[in-house]
Design brief:
alpha+beta, five-stranded mixed sheet, homodimer, about 350 residues
């Protein structure tokens, strides 16, 4: 974004002042990363930089490190098969805490409500968030509600913050991956993104899908019990999909990632919808699966632990980290060719979470 | 809100389903309290109930209790004399943690950005939040950014969450006030509300005002060092002003509050603006002062400690808690009459924070 082309360099108005935020800045892809790196983190200060690489911050403390994560939810529509903005906000934040090895124990929840929203809808969302929190065993302990005038928001936005205590032995970081690490995926991809898109556009596909939105902290607990600090990195591939999650980790650790594309489970309705819409399933958002980088010796035990949990029943090995092409993700296709898997550049599916 | 009048009772459509969120539900007054009590807390679960009475949740832990608070900021305009939405979000959240006796040590910050916002403006807000956090000594450790389409938000919303460790000896709660407690106010009221309103409406008053937005955690630390657990309750009178803060505490503790109206410092420009606009300064928002209920024996020492800090240089005693008229706030006027001080019912100044 601060790259200056010659025409602009000669222009008296700095380019930056004419730049505007684009939908693609919220995609979880390259534009998001640039906005964070060049605009937000320089402002907020160095401690915020961790948030660019990890899903949550780890705060060193006396009796166990704390893990803090925050996420704003703007999904449209607010209700969709498999969930709604309330349950999604709870699951998303529980999962972000879990991806850093945190056992979540408290949530906060802030509503921004547009004047005119039916109270019954706000009630339904609050109840859904409460049920999701109860099912996850993580209470909502505080919150806030603001109301803005008609037209100043689109119905309802929810921002959740999760607080957790780091599990003993957890040493998870996007920077800890080494060549040879096995890449494990907990289940099929693409359901959340395709479901929300279908609900929004009123599309009907041959087979119905539902969002995979679910809490993953118990799965993470089981994985760390099996693999401890040999589980090097975890990520839930939400905005930007598996492609962005793998690329971010490849860049942060300076490794390549080689994906066996045929091993990545894509449910038939997701595959059909993606073909119809011209989407790459690897770039479609998920809200109930995770990808793990695990030292080779520990990978079989961790995979077995994943499969023993309902959230990880469909867990598979999908590739490995390599010393070649650092920062790049490469897919071997069915016909044996290789292709580079790119992060999203712009916006594929706005307001997916 | 669930009060059923006879006409509605006979109506086949339940009234609730026809109800819509009003601007007044965000006022911090009676409608806000009702929405929280009847819609949000029943959904989110019992642990969230604390958030209705206190500014933050206290989480019992091993090495010191944790204090967690969250707030959404939707102030309009985003830049005003004395601050902007970024510094305001940091100060507001630092203060909410402090009001529960927490020493804040980490902040998270989530942006919801409308497509088309100038990047330079986002940069300015992030930098302002970063400067405010650095000045408060509380780092922003994680965050999130979502972008919504044009017309789906009004420029920029910021949700901050603060995490603190409870100061030793702090036992603050809106429920701990007893008859005889002295009511101490740290400084003049009304500046934030009048400033934002003036900036929004392009009003010019005889004398300029600026928001009082500032962090109060160091003031709280000094007060607790002087008064320890004899400081019973603290509140920063933001939305809904001093009237709402005092009423909430009176209701939560089951005491009356008797205010000496002439003792409440109202700066001349605030008084003039309120007179012109028909506002009650007691109902106007503040972002840099606090009100304390302190056991009588400790009140002089706590007041002296307040006055020794710049944030509390103008601290004064403004009244006391009584055993009469529980849940009510009464003001003695200059002419010796008494009037009941009411919480806001609807919306006086929307989007003040």
């Amino acid at each position: 974004m601060t790259r200056v082309d010659p025409a602009w360099a000669a222009c008296p108005v700095p380019r930056e002042e004419t730049e505007r935020v684009l939908l693609g800045h919220g995609s979880g892809g390259q534009l998001s990363a640039a906005l964070l790196r060049e605009v937000i983190v320089p402002g907020l200060g160095p401690a915020a930089a961790g948030g660019g690489v990890e899903d949550a911050a780890v705060l060193a403390g006396g009796a166990g490190d704390l893990v803090l994560s925050t996420d704003a939810f703007v999904v449209q529509p607010r209700f969709f098969p498999g969930g709604d903005i309330g349950s999604l906000a709870v699951h998303g934040t529980v999962n972000d805490v879990a991806m850093m090895g945190g056992e979540p124990f408290a949530l906060s929840l802030a509503f921004i409500v547009e004047e005119g929203l039916p109270v019954a809808e706000l009630r339904a969302v609050a109840a859904s968030a409460g049920r999701a929190a109860a099912a996850a065993g993580v209470p909502v302990v505080t919150g806030d509600t603001k109301v803005v005038g008609r037209g100043a928001a689109d119905g309802l936005f929810v921002t959740t913050t999760g607080l957790g205590r780091r599990l003993p032995g957890a040493r998870l970081s996007a920077t800890r991956v080494r060549p040879g690490d096995q890449v494990l995926l907990s289940g099929p991809i693409g359901r959340h993104g395709v479901t929300v898109l279908s609900a929004r556009e009123g599309l009907e596909f041959d087979a119905a899908t539902a969002s995979d939105s679910q809490p993953l902290h118990r799965l993470v607990r089981a994985m760390l019990a099996a693999g401890a600090d040999r589980v090097h990195a975890l990520r839930d591939p939400t905005r930007g999909g598996l492609a962005s999650a793998l690329t971010e980790i490849a860049e942060a650790s300076g490794v390549g990632v080689e994906l066996v594309e045929a091993a990545v489970p894509v449910p038939a309705p997701v595959a059909a919808a993606c073909e119809l819409l011209g989407l790459d399933p690897l770039q479609v958002a998920n809200e109930g699966c995770l990808v793990a980088f695990v030292a080779p010796a520990a990978a079989p035990a961790v995979l077995a632990a994943m499969r023993a949990r309902p959230e990880g029943a469909g867990a598979v090995r999908i590739g490995e980290a390599t010393g070649e092409r650092p920062g790049r993700v490469t897919a071997r296709t069915l016909v044996g060719a290789r292709r580079t898997v790119d992060m999203l550049v712009g916006e594929q599916l706005p307001r997916i979470c």
